[in-house]
């Protein structure tokens, strides 16, 4: 999911809101959008992965907005706040103006160019990230075939069953 989340963070840099990205992916059929998923998994886990990648793969570009979120202790549902706010560590996400302020500050600090992003572009960038990662996995042989990848995404990550999984969707 690293590349999926990476693209979601780039979309935030480019002007999309966390809530819009999640709602577009959920309307497309995902069980939950990338930011709700990050909050459920734990933003600190993805932060640890990014910090390792900063060293091991310095050629990869990442948005640093998620690091800034974690530096505030916003690790997701388990801490009561992440990309969303959670009342008494509940599971219902609530938009949080503190995240909007953080994002505005980050964009200003980095000089990120804001632009209009269509719903189709949001879906394509995120789904293609899953497809490309699936192709990379097939090239490196840890999966027996594209059906294995689709099974993991559909059964484990909430990819819409009616779309068959990212590899089937790519075909």
Question: Could you explain how this protein is built, in words?
Answer:
With 171 residues, the protein is an all-alpha fold. 60% of the residues lie in helices and 0% in strands. It is built from 9 helices and no strands.
Order of helices and strands: HHHHHHHHH
Rounded to an integer in angstroms, the radius of gyration calculated over CA atoms is 16 Å
Total beta-strand segments: 0
**Helical residue percent band:** 55-70%
Distance between the termini: 20 Å
The profile of the biggest β sheet is:
none
Globally, the shape reads globular
Q: What proportion strand?
A: under 5%
Write a concise synopsis of the structure shown.
It contains nine helices and no strands. The chain has helices at 2-13, 18-28, 34-41, 43-56, 65-71, 97-110, 119-139, 146-156, 166-170. The two termini are 20 Å apart.
List the helices and strands and how they pair.
Layout: H1 2-13, H2 18-28, H3 34-41, H4 43-56, H5 65-71, H6 97-110, H7 119-139, H8 146-156, H9 166-170
Helix pairs in contact: 1-7
Which key phrases capture this entry?
9 helices; mainly alpha; 171 residues; 0% strand
């Amino acid at each position: 999911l690293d590349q999926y989340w990476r693209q979601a963070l780039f979309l935030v840099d480019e002007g999309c809101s966390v809530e819009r990205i999640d709602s577009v992916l959920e309307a497309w059929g995902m069980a939950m959008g990338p930011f709700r998923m990050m909050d459920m998994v734990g933003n600190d886990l993805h932060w640890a992965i990014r910090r390792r990648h900063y060293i091991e793969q310095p050629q990869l570009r990442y948005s640093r907005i998620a690091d800034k979120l974690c530096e505030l202790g916003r690790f997701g549902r388990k801490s009561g706040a992440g990309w969303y706010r959670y009342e008494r560590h509940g599971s219902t996400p609530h938009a949080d103006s503190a995240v909007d302020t953080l994002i505005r500050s980050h964009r200003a600090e980095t000089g990120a160019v804001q632009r209009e992003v269509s719903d189709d572009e949001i879906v394509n960038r995120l789904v293609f990230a899953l497809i490309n990662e699936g192709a990379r996995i097939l090239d490196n042989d840890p999966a027996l075939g594209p059906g294995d990848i689709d099974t993991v995404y559909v059964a484990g990550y909430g990819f819409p069953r009616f779309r068959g999984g990212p590899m089937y969707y790519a075909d």
